[in-house]
Amino acid sequence: MLSTLMNYRLYSADMAKSLARIASQAAVERDADYYKANIGKVKTPEDLLKDQRLYAYAMKAYGLEDQIQSKGLMRKVLESDLSKTDSFANKLVDKRYREFAAAFQFGSSSKAAIQTASQTEALTEAYSSHRVTLATRASADVNAFKVRLGSLVQGIANPQSTDVAGAILSDPALLSFLEKAADLEPLPSNKDAIRQALTGGTLSSHPGLVALRDMFNFNADGSIKANMPLQTAAQIADLSSTYFDSRGAGATSQAAAVKTTYFQQAIAGVDTAGKLASDPQLLNYTLSAFGIDPSLTSAGFVENILRSQRGDANSALAQMPETTAEEIASKQRFTALNAAFAFKADGTRANGGTVFATGFDAQGIEDRFYQNYQTFALQDDKRKTSVFQARLSNMKTINDLLGRDAAFGKAAFDYILTAFDIDPSTESSSKIRRVLLSDPSDPTSYVSRLKDERYERLAAAFNFGPDGKATTQRLAQSVSAQTATGSLYTASFGTDVNAAKKELIRKDTETYLGAIGQVRSLDDLLDDKKTVAYALKAYGLSDENLSDRDLKRLFTSDLGDPKSFANAKGDKRYVDLVSAFNFTPSGTIQRDGEGVQSGAKLLSTQNRFLLQTMESQVGEQSEGARLALYFLRKAPDVTSAYGILADKALFEVARTALGLPAGISGMAIESQAKLLESKIDFKDFQDAKKLDKFIVRFSSIYDSQNSAASSPILALFGNTAGSNGIISLL
Fold first, then answer.
1. Partner of 415 for a Cys bridge, out of 46, 388, 507, 559, CB 3.0 to 4.6 A?
2. Which of 619, 579, 625, 566 has its CA nearest to residue 725?
3. What's the CA angle centered on 153, arms 150 and 155, to 5 degrees?
4. Contact between 412 and 445 (Cβ < 8 Å)
């Protein structure tokens, strides 16, 4: 009979070949084929428990054969949400149950939904910040316009006798800017319409064209008026502010600064209530300062309010209704506006050379403006968000998202595209449909070929299957795997961690969870060095100096192939890392919950089954070799003496290898732990050579202490005919 060491070497020397031999056995192959063919049909814990053949296979794979009859217990385990610390499986001391629950996707898998709660939250946050993006772009456009316009005019020798307006409109970039400022759709006829506005000849009632008429100093022939600049400082500010408004960025800090510049210039020239009310930019600024929505208030009404005199029961202010709370609040705002200015009943100034009442000045109006300028934009954003969320709750397919709603039209469609900085007015529904049906993790997909991050983010924000119906989200890492990775990262720092370090670990984990949820492709992950570093440390690989090429080969490893890059490493840490992510061998991201068990989890279960089968078969020939192979598999996960003491089989190997007497099990658990810690550096179990050396020492001592005929070691593995797995892990 072969010695323990020879038996151990026979299987461990080339584990891939050993497992292949086991897998080729007819009975093992039949069980594996049945499992692979039928596990995809399982939708609920009950489905798994009812199929005894599937259930027995899975239980054996996770070393739980002795608990096959405990279906009530296993049902609770399978239903556990591992992302919650108080879930049933997490509260059990025996970690086999957590591993079993994690192998399936019952308790914590996502359900089919057009958007998950986190996706909706991310989209609404993106919409909330879209004005910042618009303002940045609008600022760049305004600055580019000023530079280009100044350069053009500077190159004209005699602007007072040259058709400068014509030269401006012949420049495509300048013409486009003026079209946008006037809020005009790009049309060939715009050039003539804008020229008429600039030269004062327009009869159009279009507000954008009417506004342009007062923003330049042109003669009817397009030349610049004598002794006048092309634009005064106030006109430049007016045009800039108008452009911000037309781009939807009017309620931003950049726009507020431009609007304030115009207010400072324009208010100095106001001498009547009518002049203030007739200047749209000045009127909007003033109304916003007093919390009055400019879009709901006419210039004529404001002029009458400004001309209202205290004590005049017939004035516009006195006549304002006060029936409802809303009407009372509105009248209070208009009363404050009236009190800030000093106009007579005929609209002229009543306070000498200023339009302000005693105690008020331009600075006071500016202060009020900065307090209130975002109020109406935020209210509008809130309303649009509510409309989107209401529409989302009724959406079932992609057609619902792209179609026109009877009550809200295409409000949801516009909201979504705006959130991702895509102009709804220039995008076709057909293009957006192709984007939403694309896989942003697949470099060959339609959305990836667009090479535009905005569309990739849009595609990742929704969950549509090829048929346009709701499905599950693509997650680089499932929620339960994220939780497990966070726990491993924390554990990697040991137990002696001060408060400051704990806080740093917490922040690192918070950053990781936020980042991993935004990963849209394997390249996304590899480009985020901080996130990769976190994962590598969690799985004990931070010191391995892995290149991006190595990482790509790892994450795309087929764990079912013994020769794949991860398996060929011969190090469980690499397999654990790959198993924690949802990347396929082609590099795409698998949808969460695509089958109760698929991808890495399915392959991991099959590999575990082979290992358990191999160990039980080896045990029929050599109980010591079975212990050795078990230790080879389990020891790399042990990080403390208590991990050894909690597992009778591991403890027997360690006790034997260290030459400790069997009687030490009668000592206090703390004393046993202290003794083991004095003799074992548990980091050595992460080193394949050092681990092998430890097992070789065990094998030699074991054979000298146990005869081939009889051994008490069998009790460590269960003594019933139907039980081949390790019984007492914890």
1. 388
2. 619
3. 110
4. no
Q: For residue 339, give the H/E element and its range.
A: helix 325-340
Measured CA to CA, the distance from residue 340 to residue 357 in angstroms comes to 5
Catalogue the E-assigned strands of 8-57.
none
What per-residue string of b and e applies to 73-84 under the rule 16 or more CB within 10 Å gives b?
A: ebbbbbbbbbbe
Distance between CA atoms of residues 5 and 19, nearest Å: 18
- Which pLDDT tens digit goes with each residue over 202-215? 778 888 898 898 89
387: Cβ contacts below 8 Å, ≥ 6 apart: 408, 411, 412, 415
The position carrying tokens 């339960």 is 480
With beta carbons less than 8 A apart as the criterion, state whether 458 and 420 touch.
Answer: yes
CB 142 within 8 A of CB 240: yes
Q: How many of the other CB atoms lie within 10 Å of CB of 182? A: 23
β-bridge mates for residue 356, sequence order: 341
Three-state DSSP string of 372-411? HCCHHHHHHHHHHHHHHHHHHCCCCEHHHHHCCECCCECH
**CA-closest candidate to residue 249, choices 418, 383, 362:** 418
Q: Is the pLDDT of residue 130 over 90?
A: no
The pLDDT of residue 592 is: 66
Q: Over pLDDT 70: what percentage of the chain?
A: 95
**DSSP labels for 470-530?**
B-PPB-SS-HHHHHHHHHHHHHTT-S---HHHHHHHHHHHHHHHHHHTT--SHHHHHH-HH
The pTM (predicted TM-score) of the whole model is: 0.66
Partners of residue 224 on adjacent β-strands: 218
Distance, CA of 5 to CA of 627 (rounded, Å) = 11
Which of 421, 459, 463 has the alpha carbon at shortest distance from 442? 459
Q: How far apart are CA 401 and CA 383, in angstroms?
A: 18
Q: Note the pLDDT tens digit of each residue in 686-726.
A: 888 999 999 999 999 998 888 544 444 544 544 333 333 33
Q: How far apart are CA 233 and CA 239, in angstroms?
A: 10
Gap between the Cα atoms of 696 and 68, Å rounded:
34
What is the sign, positive or negative, of the torsion defined by CA atoms of 37, 38, 39, 41? positive
15-18 long-range contacts, Cβ below 8 Å, gap at least 24?
15/562, 15/570, 16/562, 16/563, 16/567, 16/568, 17/562, 18/614
Instruction: Indicate the Cα dihedral angle 266, 269, 270, 272, nearest 10°.
Output: -150
Of 710, 714, 709, the residue nearest 727 (C-alpha): 714
What's the start-to-end Cα distance of the chain, in Å?
A: 33
In whole angstroms, how far apart are CA 147 and each of 140, 174, 243? 11, 10, 16
- Contact indicator for 726, 64 with CB cutoff of 8 Å: no
Distances in Å between the Cα of 560 and the Cα atoms of 181, 261, 598, 721 are 60, 67, 11, 30
DSSP state of 424: G
- C-alpha to C-alpha distance for 367 and 606, rounded to whole angstroms: 69
CB within 8 Å of 682: residues ≥ 6 apart: 638, 639, 640, 641, 643
**Token pair listed for 411:** 């409000």
- Rounded to whole angstroms, how far apart are CA atoms 686 and 700? 22
Q: What's the token pair of residue 170?
A: 């012949």
Reported as type and span, the H/E element at residue 446 is: helix 446-449
